[in-house]
Amino acid sequence: ITIMAPVKGGSGIRENKLNRRVGNLTEKIKNGEVFSPSTGFDLPDGATKSPDVAWVCGEKMAQLTAEQVENEFIPIVPDFIVEVRSKSDRLKRLQGKMLNTWIANGVRLAWLIDPFDEKVYIYREDGLFEVVTGFDKKISGEEVLPGFELDLSEFRLYGKK
């Protein structure tokens, strides 16, 4: 068990904003569910982890029983996850988690958003890796979450234009 302190205000704003964006698209496309940062996922390697944002497609959600959803950690691997770096997070540790936990367990698309260096690390299930530098760009959910586009300028440090 890893005990995590509550996030500071700026991180909370960014996490909530991202959850809203993914949630809004999920309602529009009527496919899948988005989960909050406090939701645990039981992964194939035996770990239980909680990303800042997780999205699971409708096909996988249909495999779950009401009992599993309501009374257990979710026993499937999300299709898409996002981790947002907080000031207290060590970047190397988060990068390792993205690759060795999320991608290794079957997540199809994972983003690590670093608002302090204005970079996004994009990890894909096929091993392709990309770093987007500068928050003057947009990134997409690709084929995993079609139609999802994130304007990175919204994730700059609070008060920074």
Overview of this structure, please?
Helix content is 28%, strand content 24%. It has 161 residues and is α+β, with helices and mostly antiparallel strands. β2 and β3 (48-49) form a beta hairpin. A six-stranded mixed beta sheet has the order 1-4-5-6-7-8, with helices on both faces. The protein has four helices and ten strands.
Question: Spans of 5+ residues with little confidence (pLDDT < 50)?
Answer: none
Return Rg in Å. 15 Å
- How many angstroms does the end-to-end distance come to? 38 Å
| Class of secondary structure makeup | alpha+beta
Percentage beta strand: 15-25%
Q: What is the ordering of alpha helices and beta strands?
A: HEEEEHHEHEEEEE
| Percent of residues in helices | 25-40%
Please provide the count of β strands.
10
The overall pLDDT average reads: 93
> Biggest β-sheet: count, sense, barrel?
6 strands, mixed
CA-based shape: globular
- SS field, number of helical segments: 4
Give, in spatial order, the strands making up the sheet with the most strands: 1-4-5-6-7-8
